[in-house]
Amino acid sequence: MFMEERRSNRKTRVGTVVSDRMNKTVVVSVERLVKHAKYGKYIRRRSKFKAHDAENQCRIGDRVLIQESRPLSKTKHWVVVKILVRAAV
């Protein structure tokens, strides 16, 4: 038998790091566009997620890819998968 590649059904988001003050945790702001039900105009909606950053590599302004995981604390259930773009220093 051959091995099948197992696909993850966990959610992923791309966002910007807005806080790195905590140890091994970053706050990631994810922006999305939502169409207004009545007027049809697109509105920016913003959500903040606490994500686990094991090596404390993320800095404020970095674009990161985060993935859903098991609960790591009361409010933290996302993990930083990859730093996509480093912030300009």
Automatic annotation (TrEMBL):
Q: From which domain of life does this come?
A: Bacteria
- Pfam families, per database record: Ribosomal_S17
User: Which keywords appear in this protein's UniProt record, sorted alphabetically?
Assistant: Ribonucleoprotein, Ribosomal protein, RNA-binding, rRNA-binding
Recorded hits in SUPFAM superfamilies, A to Z, give:
Nucleic acid-binding proteins
> Could you state a single Gene Ontology molecular function term?
rRNA binding
**Any one of the GO CC terms:** cytosolic small ribosomal subunit
- Which Gene Ontology BP annotations are present? translation
Can the keyword Glycosyltransferase be found in this entry's annotation?
no
Task: Tell me the protein family, please.
Answer: Belongs to the universal ribosomal protein uS17 family.
Q: How does it assemble?
A: Part of the 30S ribosomal subunit.
Purpose of the protein: One of the primary rRNA binding proteins, it binds specifically to the 5'-end of 16S ribosomal RNA.
Protein's UniProt name? Small ribosomal subunit protein uS17
Q: Which organism is it from?
A: Desulfosoma caldarium
